[in-house]
Amino acid sequence: MTGTADPGPRDDVDDRVPSGVRAMSVVRWALVAVMGVVAAASIAYATGALRKVSVPTQREHPTLYTCPMHPAIVEDHPGECPICGMTLVPKLEAGASSGERAASAAGAGTRPPPGLSDIELAPERIQLIGMRTAKVERASLGDALRTTGVIAADERGLAVVSARFSGWVQRLLVSETGRRVKRGEVLATIYSPEVLRAEQEYLTARGWDAKAAAAGEASPPEHHGGGQGGLAIDARRRLELLGVAGPEIDALAARGKVSDSVALRSTADGFVTARNVVPGAAVQPGAALFEVASLAKVWVLAEVFEQDAARLRIGQKASLELAAFPGERFAGRVQFIYPTVSVASHTLRVRLEFANRPGPGGVRLRPGMSGNVALELPSASGLVIAAEALVDTGEHQYVFVAKEGGRFEPRLVHAGGRAGERVQISDGLAEGEVVVTNGNFLLDSESRLRAAIEGRSASAAPWK
User: Fold this and answer.
1) Which pTM does this prediction carry?
2) Tens of pLDDT, residues 131-145
3) Which of 50, 330, 361, 409 could pair with 320 in a Cys bridge, judged by C-beta atoms 3.0 to 4.6 Å apart?
4) What is the DSSP code string of 419-463?
């Protein structure tokens, strides 16, 4: 029987692994290792562990970059803003919070205004804004404080003409305001039964006294006050108390009969500023019928800022310029400084006195005119900046200090006296520092936006 024998192993079959398969296996494991390293590095970078173990540099914090238009964009490398495409600029004091910067500023003797933060602008934006700056200088404010004033009548020269009796206006001799009158001039005539009775009593008393003198008798003591003709003296005194002038009483005695009206005379020299009667009008005792103002001297009421109150003195010289008289100055003096300051405008009222020289058309300084007033003040030396550099919100006063690298620092200051286009700074700045004089509005808006993004509180403690 013939069977199939086991052939056994063959010598011509190669049992070694192909070389290509072994090389691919090495490559595969190398790729797995590289991917693991990359994954670990990504996790470490995302958690910040890689940055913490980075090689330290000369700077305490790494440089961060931000977008000038979108401060919320902060990167650790230069590039472009993913929102607007602008080039990122270095962010000052990277890693430092706004609270740390505020504490640093407070330690240096300055404090930022509430709700504002430091900002950085690229040179292109600074040029686009048209920003201008100026140095803080030590100088003396001018010896003249300029303001505006309004002419008013001197209250000491005002007089009211009224009647001391009742009656009716018979004739009106001064029927318009603005007319110039003299003391004792008749303004109107008034029919008054009360005065007519007093005149009749006076004439009767004179007759009795004349008869008594002719008979050689004396009047009773209670009628003459210690002398002959006492009845007439008492009656005359009654007419004087009613406002009848002495010359009119003498004319009454010479005439021997009563008149049908009483003359109302001006009690002062000046101009009629008010007329409150018309012919036929009823007159009551004490009613103001005419107002007369003497304009030989006038007042000028001027307003000055309360910061300059300490520099005002009674008797200081002042000058007044009016549009009605171009190129001419009127000289006067400070006559009174009012004791209160206006709450609305924070200004102090000053009263000046000027002599009113007459001109061809009457007085030259007329109540109601307004003009420029210059007060001669003692010079005050100190740090001075341009008035347009100061931002005054009513609650806080601050400026923007320009630093190197396009950084602008808002800083609280205390403003002092003003003179023209300059203002004195008593605290908050140092001589030689540079402040922004043009572009403050844009800087203020940008600073408030930056502070809001950084979470800075707008209710920070005020300057103390």
Assistant:
1) 0.50
2) 899 999 988 776 678
3) 330
4) ETTEEEEEES--TT-EEEEE-HHHHHHHHHHHHHHTT--TTPPPP
